[in-house]
Amino acid sequence: MMDHVDVPPRLAGGRGTPGRGMGMPFEVDFNWASQAIIETVAVPFPSLETPPGVVVADPPVPQLEFKHSGPVSVTMFGSGRWNRDSSYRFNAGCNQDQHLAAEVGDVGVLPLAEAQRLEQWFLERYPESKPGVLKDREKWNFYLTRNGAVFNFHLATQQAHG
Question: What pTM value is reported for the model?
Fold first, then answer.
C-alpha cells in the first residue's frame, strides 16, 4: 500500500520563468525520478504497481467540474492531482524534498543522459498502458493512458552545453 497524504490544492500559480513555461527548477536524479513515477502512478492506478498475482481495482476517476482540480496527493518522492478539462488527467511530478510537494510550476530537472535512461525505463515498465514521452526542448512529459484517463509526469532536462 502506498503511503500518501491528501492535502488541499495550492492556490498560487507558481513562480514561472518568463517565456519558459516552468517555475523554479530543482535537481533530481534517476533514482528519485523513477521512484516518484512509481509512487504517483500508484495513486490513480494502483493496479499498475501491484505485484503479479495480486488483483487490485483502480479507484474510480473523481468527478470534477470542468476546469477544476482535485486535492494534491503527496508520496515520499512525488506528488500529483487530478485535473479535468476536455479529459481527465492525473498530473504529477517530483517532490523537491521527501513528503513535501513542489510548488505549482516548480519542476525537477534531470541531466539529459539520465532523462533518456528514464524514458527507456518508463516505456518498458508500462507497455500495456500506451506509454510515451512528449518533448518540448527541455520540458518532458511522461504519459500513459488507463481506464479512459491520462497520467502525466512532468520533468525538465538539463541539456549538455558545449
Answer: 0.84
